[in-house]
Amino acid sequence: MPSPYRVAVIVGSLRKGSFTRRTAKALIGLAPASLDCHFVEIGDLPLYDEDLEAGGAPAAWVRFRDEVGAAQAVLFATPEYNRSVPGALKNAIDVGSRPYGHSVWKGKPAAVVSTSPGALGGFGANHHLRQSLVFLDMPVMQQPEAYLGQVAHMVAEDFTIPDEKTRGFLTGLMQAFADWIALTLAKPA
């Protein structure tokens, strides 16, 4: 069996017990054996300021860039803040895209899962994030789309998905992402 694909899992919410982080942990548990998923943390990243690059990038930026750079694909899990992505996630995207010409995102297959305790499932955040990923030259999985509403009741304390239909959908999502990664990385550059 070939080595599993290294997947950076980036969670847009900083709160350790957030619904989005719980959902991401559940998704990792549903991932097929062909995916090796690891969280890449964003909470310690200083706000992007090009002036900070001049004296040598902050250690947190270097760590983040190295971790994402070592991954072959990226799974984004984001809540919706004011119909968009949280500022910490946007900052992480900016940090990874710099310095100009050295983006760690380029060419990495991606999937976006958005969450909301409300009914819309983070639709606005999902699409705002996709706009940035297209610009960053990340081939984003189009189907299935994952807008997870009512997320407060979706994931159990042990990070399992009790509802069989939801668990089936999310298992299929992770398999589709594995297939998307394989297809995308098999294409000549």
Briefly characterize the structure.
The chain has six helices and five strands, in the order βαβααβαβαβα. The protein is an alpha/beta fold and 189 residues long. The chain has one domain (5-186): Rossmann fold (3-Layer(aba) Sandwich), CATH 3.40.50.360.
Essential attributes:
single chain; 189 residues; alpha/beta; Rossmann fold; 5-stranded parallel sheet; 5 strands
Describe the structure.
Helix content is 40%, strand content 15%. The protein is of the alpha/beta class and 189 residues long. The chain has a single domain, classed as 3-Layer(aba) Sandwich (Rossmann fold), CATH 3.40.50. It has a five-stranded parallel β-sheet with strand order 2-1-3-4-5, sandwiched between helices. Strand 1, helix 1 and strand 2 (35-39) form a beta-alpha-beta unit. The longest helix has 23 residues, at 164-186. The radius of gyration is 16 Å and the shape is globular. It starts with a strand and ends with a helix.
Beta-strand content: 5-15%
What distance separates the N and C termini? 24 Å
Helix fraction, binned, reads: 25-40%
Mean pLDDT: 94
Q: Count structural domains.
A: 1
- Widest sheet, order of strands: 2-1-3-4-5
Note the main sheet.
5 strands, parallel
Give the CATH topology: Rossmann fold
Radius of gyration: 16 Å
The total strand number stands at 5
Q: What is the helix tally?
A: 6
Which descriptor suits the 3D outline?
globular
Instruction: Examine the secondary-structure arrangement and name the CATH architecture.
Output: 3-Layer(aba) Sandwich
Poorly predicted sequence stretches spanning 5 or more consecutive residues: none
CATH homologous superfamily identity:
Flavodoxin domain
CATH class bucket: Alpha Beta
Run of helices and strands: EHEHHEHEHEH
Classify the secondary structure makeup into a structural class. alpha/beta
